[in-house]
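Incident log entry.

Two folding requests arrived from the same account within the same minute. Monitoring flagged them as a possible duplicate submission, but the sequences differ. Recording both here for audit purposes.

Request one:
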Amino acid sequence: MADAGDWRLRGQERYLRGADLYWRAYRRFGGNPEWDHDQCSFCWAKFMVEDHPDVLHEGYCTLDEYHWICSRCFDTFKDLFGWRTIPVLGSRDPEGS
């Protein structure tokens, strides 16, 4: 459950409240071929295609794949933000969607 004073909350409600999210393997943002990673919109955990220590390879993302959220932050903030998960054919959504 989220605490209003959680250090990870920094105004994300402006662009993530009520967002539809889906679980997927990370891939680079198509809008910029030089972009080699993304970070969790809350805790800054790193998402990459390449295999490095402490790197995540799958997580929740917005439909445009611009904002990524790690499973830990998703579990903490899903009720506060009112997220809805969208099933994707072939995905292994930990929420069971």
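Request two (distinct sequence, not a duplicate):
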Amino acid sequence: MSTLLAILAYGFALTLVLALVYAARSVRLQNRFRRLGTVEGRTMEEIVKHVGPPNHHTKLVNDREILEWRRVRFHVALSFTKGVCDGSMDVNAP
């Protein structure tokens, strides 16, 4: 019985640690975007250099691209034309 309780306690502790790690990553990305300020008119390279690589990259027709950054409870999608940001398409933050 005590072995089962120890396994459950370790599992619970691991869950808490993972939740804290993912929450910290989300907050860090949100702060990077906040410090970056206005994204319109900035180049793709400038934004990626400041906030880090996106989680998803979609190429569209006419030299258009969409970059997305996703973390727990945070999502940003930016639209680019010829490497220059047109603005945000979707921003979900707490």
